[in-house]
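pls design
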């Protein structure tokens, strides 16, 4: 149980590292866009090569499809609520007290971080050893989310203490989710495990499509397409060697 909580916390710790860098060290919009673009590719790869592929392989097509659509739907509903409250001008380059691009990425991070951490606990339960690929993929993909979201929230008027508190909460939730995945999930219930993984993938795809991709291109230009491809290739290499 302690291993499950530990590795869940390790995977989520890069959110805090990214947040600290975004808050206390100057990062230009272009550099932030490049990091986001690479992170977008990593996230797309993790969602496709790891979560969705495994879900379909282990549970067929029906339950993973339902979980995937549910994850995407929940994120989009949350983002629509944010837009309705005034977050329609959400570019990070604009400082607006009602701009919520950083908060939107933060919400998407929670949606995918919790079920992904559950998967860490489940993998430990199944194999009696942690899945390094999942931990590494989550760690790498979390960093640009913490960085870009914190920069966005900082520009939107959030205090440094509040931002760090939010990420500490997410890190704690990641650790506890991994622990709960180890303790509560019945590994014989294939549809539940595959639905959790697909749910995380749906949240990831919705998040990068509606927040990370547009903002990265806005600030970084066409080169972000190549950086996203590099991120996707990194996920493929991790999957191959894993």
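designed seq:
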């Amino acid at each position: 149980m302690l291993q499950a909580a530990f590795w869940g916390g390790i995977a989520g710790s890069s959110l805090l590292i990214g947040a600290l860098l975004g808050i206390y060290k100057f990062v230009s919009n272009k550099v932030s866009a490049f990091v986001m673009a690479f992170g977008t590719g990593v996230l797309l790869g993790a969602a496709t090569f790891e979560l969705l592929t495994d879900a379909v392989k282990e549970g067929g097509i029906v339950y993973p499809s339902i979980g995937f659509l549910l994850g995407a739907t929940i994120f989009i509903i949350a983002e629509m609520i944010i837009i309705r409250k005034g977050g329609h001008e959400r570019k990070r380059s604009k400082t607006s007290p009602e701009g919520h691009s950083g908060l939107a990425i933060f919400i998407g991070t929670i949606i995918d971080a919790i079920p992904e951490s559950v998967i860490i606990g489940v993998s430990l339960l199944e194999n009696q050893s942690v899945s390094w690929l999942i931990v590494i993929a989550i760690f790498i993909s979390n960093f640009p989310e913490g960085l870009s979201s914190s920069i966005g929230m900082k520009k939107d008027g959030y205090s440094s203490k509040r931002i760090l508190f939010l990420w500490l909460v997410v890190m704690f939730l990641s650790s506890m989710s991994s622990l709960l995945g180890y303790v509560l999930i019945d590994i014989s219930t294939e549809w539940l495990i595959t639905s959790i993984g697909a749910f995380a993938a749906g949240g990831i795809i919705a998040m990068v499509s509606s927040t990370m991709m547009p903002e990265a291109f806005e600030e970084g230009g066409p080169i972000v397409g190549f950086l996203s491809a590099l991120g996707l290739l990194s996920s493929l290499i991790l999957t191959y060697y894993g």
